[in-house]
Structure formats: structure tokens, C-alpha cells
Write a structure and sequence with these properties.
The complex is a heterotetramer of chains A (about 100), B (about 325), C (about 110) and D (about 90). Chain A is about 85% helix and about 0% strand. Chain A is mostly helical and about 100 residues long. Chain C contains three helices and no strands. Chain C has helices spanning about 5-25, 30-50, 60-95. Classes of the chains: A mainly alpha (about 100), B mainly alpha (about 325), C mainly alpha (about 110), D mainly alpha (about 90). Chains in contact: A-B, A-D, B-C, B-D, C-D. The interface between B and C is large, with 118 and 90 residues.
Chain lengths: ~100, ~325, ~110, ~90
């Protein structure tokens, strides 16, 4: 059982790390601020979610697991709203020169 | 443990690179963004140094309120930077200063490498005496009992700093509210966030205070989070800055050091020394001080960020 | 080299970087920022010393850690006072213009001016 | 397992460092504001991984605070850019 959980953790965390890689590649490669914002908020939040998922079996007790999930939900809600605000700034200042 | 070492090396390199960026960045705004990123990254370093209490403080102060304070100042000073470009020192001067700073760094690095082994530590003493305080978190024990005088004086420093900031207001604004008049901003996304986050933040702040007795956390960390949430509500226009002459506000500000001082003085009668707690009541007394302190810290930090009064008092 | 020593050397470098910025930067606000960097480098050195003192089941010596927490708060109070002085100086330099008069719109910590 | 967690934490942190290097360079102010967002996700992921590897207590509490403060800092950045003269703030590197 513990081995199965470990494999689950490794898979989920690896997938999460892959999405962080994708997000960073997007940041480095995309041409303007709006697309970079897209890469950052989508890929990285998914990556964090997968990392949290992978760490859940290792959390100490139900409270620890709940806290991990709350961290992710909080980041998700904040990122969704803040990216709106950032996108407005990006529109206001125009595309990059 | 080579992978742990690799992680630490990446972390240290990133922190140093961001620190260097805040110095060399051409615009102040970019430098402040770098500074906030630096503060958030430093929290990771503190976790690696097995000091989660400090990590919480550094995140809340370095990444949170100091960043906002500097941002506000940068926005107001915007446009004045160009005037000073001529004063930028020349290459020779920069080289000399660089070499001097390099020497300072080398001396500090040598000190780090030559630190005595085994390292001196007070951890066993703190652990041995922790039971008398009734709290389980050694840092809270140090802050509230073993070195309570430091903490008391620090509370006084916070209030003094706030008096200093307020006293910079022009006479006609004395007693008014800090910050400009609030404009109703129809920025729905921001208002949404400012309605959503503060309740969560208040719960987490109070939670940090509550677990601070036995686990990492405490009044500073909780108070700094509350201050951040207050400022967030204010940025969205959901709350207005209070007038500095308001009596309730001043009571909260003074209550932090005053309650601490009163309990400290009571120590003369009840436990034979200033700031000594009678053993049976140590934990409840510490919790009373911490609750009052958290509110006072939150109010003081928030008001320090808002700055001196800028509106005439309404009479 | 242990991880703790690594962070100790990093903290030394931070002090150097902060000091360099503090001397070189002509703008007062940037100097304040550099000074904060310098301060956090010193705090980190303290943290390294605390970590080395790990004993009695604690990850680090709690006394320096508690002192650093106090130090961070006091450093913030000092920065806030310095920023207030800077802004007042700035107003005075512009001919004592009243705040809220012709000052440029401010954002950041305290939102927008009307 | 511990080694794997360290490796994953180091990898995520390296990604954050690369992204940070890109974002801080700009060119627009909107790019820079993303720095807090990036640390709010990647930094927290690295923190949770490293805490799971070393067993630091209360790492989740630090992560909770970081999540709140990263959002707070982003909002402050956005507010710091508002004003009629932000064309000036977009130039530079």
C-alpha cells in the first residue's frame, strides 16, 4: 500500500514539475505580456495542484491534508482574480515595444 | 544529501541574483518588485534554516508590508529619478566601492567559515525552562518570557515610529486621516478579491496566533497578516483610513505595550521580578498579551504603511 | 561545504550587495531598499548562527531566531519612518506644496488620489 | 523518496528562477507584476516539496501566508501602476 502511494506521489509530483517546466518555457518563448500571463497562470497553477495532490498521502493527518488543499484553492482563486488585474495593466500599457 | 545541497545552491544563487537585480535595476518600480520577490524567496531560505517562525515574519514583512510601503513611496516620487542621474558615481568610484564591499563580504565569509565548533547554543537552557512558561513553541517562550523586555521595547519602538510618521504631517492636517480621499473604484475584480481574501486572511492570522503557543506562529506573524488584509481592503476602496485623532484607534495602538507593561509590573507583586509571570498563570497571561499585541501590531503596521495624515480633520 | 555554511556565505554576499547599493545609489528610496537588503543579510547571518546551534531537539537556537523576528519588525518601523521623511522632504523640495494639492497621483499602499 | 522530493523541489525552484529572470527583465510593467504570481505558485510548490522532504513543521502555514501575501503583493503592484503617467513607468529595460 505504501509503495502504491509512493508511486502515486512520484507520478503526480513529476507531472506537476512538468507543468512548471511548461509554464517557464511559455514565459521564455511567448512574444507578449498577455500570452506570458496565460502561460504563467494556467500551467503553474495546474503544476501546484498536481504537487499538492502528490503530497497529500504524505501529509500528517486530515488537518494537514486539508491545509494543503486550502493552499491550492487559495492560490487558484487569487491567481484567477489577480491575472485579470494584470491583464488590464497589460492592455493599458499596450504591447511590448 | 547531495540533492539537498543542490537545492540550497539554487536557492542561494536565486536569492543573490534577485538581490543584485534590485540594486542594478534602472527603474525604482522594477527594483521594488524585485525586493518583494526577494522577500518571498527569503521565506524559503528561513524554512531551510529550520526557522519557520522567522519565515512567516519575513514573508509578511519583507514580501508584504515593506513592499507596499516602498511601492507607495516609489509611485509618489515617480518622475524625480531622472534629476539624480547626474549624481550617479563614475566607473572608478563604482570600482573602489565594489572592492571595498567585496572586502566586507570576504571578512564576513571568513567569519562564517571560522565560526567555533561546536557552536555555542542556548537551546538546551531554553528547552529546560520552557515548561515554566506553559508554551510549547520555544520562540514564543523566548519572545514572551525569557527576553520579554526586548519584545516590550520593540512594541514601544513601533508606537514611537508611528508617532514620528504622524508628526511629519503639516499642521492643518493634524488629527485627520492618512491617505487621500477614497474614490469609488468600479474595479470589480479587485473588489471581489478584497471581499474574498480578508476573511480568509483573518482566519489564518488568528490561527497563527493561536498555534503560536505550541507551533511556529505568533502575534507578529498574525498581526502582519491582518495588517496586509486591512491594506488590501483599503486599496479596493472597501475601507477608509481612520482619522489619527480617533480615540478608539489610539487605545488599540497603546494597548499593546500598555497591557504588556501592566502585566510586567504586576510581576513585581506576584512573582518577585519585572516581567516575571506567576508560574500557574504564565500561559493565560502570555495569551492575553499576545491577543492584544496582535491587534496593536496589525493597527500599527497598517498605519505605518499609510503614512502621515493628509486630510484635514472633520469637525 | 555544508548547507548552513553555504547560506552563511550567501548572507555575507548579501551584506556586500546591500552595502554597495547603499553607497552607489543616488536616489534616497533606492538607498533605503539597499539598506533593507543589507539588514536582511545580517539577519540571515544570525539565522545561520542559530541553525548551527541546533540542540535539544530544536532545529536551531531559539534565542537568535527570536531576536531576528524582533529585528525584522524594528527594521520595518525604521523603514516606514524613513519613507515618511523622504516624502516630506520631497514635498518641501518642491516649494512646500501641500500634500493632496498638485502632487502626482499616488498608488501603491494607499490607493489612488482623487 | 526523500531524494526524489529534493530533486523535484530543486527542479521547480530552478524553473521559478528562470521565469523570474525573464519576468523581471520586462519589457512592460505587466511582465514584472507577474513576479509575485510566479512566486505564489512555484515558490509555494518548492516550499511544500522541501518541507515534505525535511519534515519542517508548519510548512503548510508558511505556504498559506505566502499564498495570501503573494496575492496582496500582486494587487499592490497593480495599484502602484495606476495613474496618468504610467507611460513613463513602462520604459526602461
Amino acid at each position: 500500500m505504501s509503495l502504491a502511494l509512493d508511486i502515486f506521489s512520484v507520478l503526480a509530483i513529476s507531472a506537476g514539475a512538468f507543468f512548471f517546466l511548461a509554464g517557464t518555457v511559455g514565459l521564455l518563448r511567448f512574444p507578449d505580456a498577455l500570452t506570458r500571463l496565460h502561460a504563467l497562470t494556467k500551467a503553474d497553477n495546474l503544476g501546484l495542484g498536481l504537487v499538492v495532490l502528490g503530497l497529500l498521502p504524505r501529509a500528517d493527518g486530515a488537518l494537514g491534508a486539508l491545509k494543503l488543499v486550502v493552499v491550492w484553492v487559495l492560490v487558484l482563486v487569487a491567481a484567477g482574480t489577480v491575472s485579470q488585474l494584470i491583464a488590464r495593466v497589460a492592455q493599458r500599457v499596450g504591447p511590448s515595444p | 544529501m547531495t540533492l539537498a545541497w543542490a537545492f540550497d545552491a539554487i536557492l542561494a544563487a536565486t536569492v543573490l541574483a534577485v538581490a543584485a537585480w534590485t540594486i542594478v535595476a534602472r527603474e525604482t518600480f522594477a527594483a521594488v518588485v524585485g525586493f518583494v520577490a526577494y522577500g518571498l524567496l527569503l521565506a524559503l531560505v528561513w524554512v531551510r534554516l529550520a526557522a519557520p517562525d522567522v519565515a512567516l515574519t519575513e514573508a509578511a514583512i519583507g514580501g508584504g508590508v515593506t513592499g507596499v510601503l516602498l511601492l507607495g513611496a516609489a509611485a509618489r516620487l515617480r518622475g524625480t529619478a531622472g534629476v539624480l542621474v547626474d549624481e550617479r558615481p563614475g566607473a572608478a568610484m563604482r570600482l573602489v566601492v565594489g572592492v571595498l564591499c567585496g572586502i566586507v563580504t570576504a571578512a564576513l565569509a571568513a567569519t562564517v567559515l571560522l565560526l567555533p565548533d561546536p557552536a555555542p547554543t542556548l537551546a538546551p537552557e531554553a528547552a529546560a525552562n520552557l515548561t515554566t512558561t506553559g508554551v510549547g513553541n520555544p520562540i514564543t517562550g523566548v519572545l514572551m518570557a525569557f527576553r520579554a523586555l526586548d519584545t516590550l521595547l520593540e512594541k514601544v519602538v513601533l508606537v514611537l515610529a508611528l508617532i514620528g510618521v504622524w508628526s511629519l504631517a503639516p499642521d492643518r492636517f493634524w488629527g485627520g486621516a492618512p491617505g487621500p480621499e477614497r474614490r469609488a473604484q468600479p474595479d470589480d475584480a479587485l473588489v471581489f478579491l478584497a471581499r474574498l481574501l480578508p476573511p480568509v486572511g483573518i482566519v489564518i492570522g488568528v490561527y497563527l496566533l493561536w498555534v503560536g503557543a505550541d507551533e511556529p506562529g505568533g502575534a507578529f506573524q498574525g498581526g502582519a497578516l491582518l495588517a496586509a488584509m486591512w491594506l488590501l481592503a483599503m486599496m479596493a476602496g472597501l475601507a477608509t483610513a481612520p482619522a489619527v485623532s480617533e480615540r478608539r484607534l489610539r487605545l488599540v495602538l497603546v494597548a499593546g505595550p500598555a497591557v504588556f507593561l501592566a502585566i510586567g509590573l504586576a510581576g513585581f507583586a506576584l512573582a518577585d521580578a519585572f516581567l516575571a509571570y506567576p508560574e500557574a498563570y504564565a500561559k493565560p497571561l502570555i495569551i492575553i498579551i499576545e491577543v492584544v499585541k496582535m491587534l496593536a501590531v496589525a493597527a500599527t503596521l497598517g498605519l505605518l504603511v499609510m503614512g502621515p495624515p493628509e486630510r484635514p480633520p472633520q469637525r | 561545504m555544508s548547507e548552513v555554511t553555504l547560506f552563511g556565505l550567501g548572507a555575507s554576499a548579501l551584506v556586500g550587495i546591500g552595502l554597495y547599493g547603499f553607497i552607489i545609489q543616488p536616489e534616497p528610496l533606492r538607498r533605503l531598499l539597499a539598506f533593507n537588503l543589507l539588514g536582511s543579510g545580517v539577519f540571515l547571518l544570525f539565522g545561520v548562527i542559530a541553525r548551527r546551534g541546533a540542540a535539544a531537539g530544536m532545529g536551531g537556537d531559539p534565542i537568535p531566531q527570536a531576536l531576528v523576528i524582533t529585528g525584522i519588525i524594528v527594521a520595518f518601523a525604521g523603514s516606514a519612518l524613513a519613507v515618511a521623511l523622504l516624502l516630506r522632504l520631497h514635498q518641501a523640495d518642491r516649494g512646500g506644496a501641500a500634500p493632496g494639492g498638485d502632487a502626482p497621483p499616488a498608488g501603491g499602499g494607499d490607493g489612488d488620489r482623487t | 523518496m526523500t531524494e526524489f522530493l529534493f530533486a523535484a523541489a530543486g527542479f521547480v525552484l530552478a524553473m521559478v528562477a528562470l521565469g523570474l529572470a525573464r519576468i523581471l527583465r520586462g519589457p512592460t510593467i505587466a511582465d514584472r507584476i507577474m513576479a509575485a504570481q510566479l512566486l505564489g505558485t512555484g515558490g509555494i510548490a518548492a516550499l511544500l516539496l522541501i518541507a515534505a522532504a525535511t519534515g519542517v513543521p508548519a510548512a503548510a502555514d508558511v505556504a498559506l501566508s505566502l499564498a495570501l501575501l503573494a496575492a496582496f503583493a500582486s494587487v499592490a503592484f497593480v495599484q502602484g501602476t495606476s495613474g496618468p503617467d504610467d507611460s513613463e513607468a513602462t520604459q526602461g529595460r
